[in-house]
């Protein structure tokens, strides 16, 4: 362990995706910070020479807060900031930050983004950004609100994110069956995330349109917008398989999204943190799908924004400044600053099952537009639909970059065509 008098950044775990974890650790090293990590297992970090490790279940907030704060104090760690990389840690980061007198969101405000029902309640103050929705608690309240929300609609758990636990209700005849499937699926035994705010859930209008995500940060209550990402999602699986930065939306829609994002984040009351807002652009304008009180994943902040800005805009580096109580920003809106295009594409199997053939990854690796490539599965591994196992469907991912005058979508299509995957 290094000199404990040195400055530490406290990570509440890191993102599990290897490409993002590498960048999260690299950013702290580049900033000259020692790294303390609190997580349930040190195994993912055995090759990183982490300076201090605190073994703790981050989901048990009261116990975790006590263990982390006591450990920091007893070891005289000079912690300058705390970072939540995942949704489950957002509330804990607020608690630990408050206990250690660090820059952080106030505990009462963090529930506005962690509890999706609270998010919807607050967003009623903004005209037309909510879909039709109802907050329900049981089958009776669900059934009573079906006609108000309309069919088709979605059942969503209040404490989850990344599309987990969402069930589509297509007909009135099958509504009761879908409700029971939703209740049986969203249990803590399947995923700890379902234990939070489980006393209420959301019934929402099923929207049609294009999906996008806003990346940004809040420093000293000022909202900063870094980028808008265009997403592609196979809604039948469902699986998000592509991200592109910068957005190709027309300027007036992008400006409206920036305006909505800024007002929504101010309503939430979060501070000294990253955020992401998932949005669908419909015929009735942009609608907010979700607000997260942390930087989003999917390599948007770790790779796509840096690549699209020719490495002039580095979200992770900026975040480490923000959580230390500094404001590194020179302007509030960066969406027009991209000098190149970047994108990420998942390599997906034709169906779930056991993989019997994978070919083409070396061709992708050698492609001139490839900037990063990761293969997550090998022959004989199994792949599962997201409803059966989270994050176990993609065989790999590629990150690409091109000039502003080219079409990153065509390049991602070309890279995807180089890989062949078969399952049985």
From TrEMBL:
GO molecular function: ATP binding; ligase activity; metal ion binding
UniProt xrefs under SMART domains: GARS_A (SM01209)
Domain of life according to the entry: Bacteria
ATP-binding found in the keyword field: yes
Keywords of the record: ATP-binding, Ligase, Nucleotide-binding, Plasmid
Signal peptide annotation: none
Keyword Lipid metabolism recorded: no
UniProt xrefs under Pfam families: ATP-grasp_4, LAL_C2
Gene3D superfamilies documented for this protein: ATP-grasp fold, B domain
Domain ATP-grasp, residue spans: 120-324
Protein name per UniProt: Biotin carboxylase
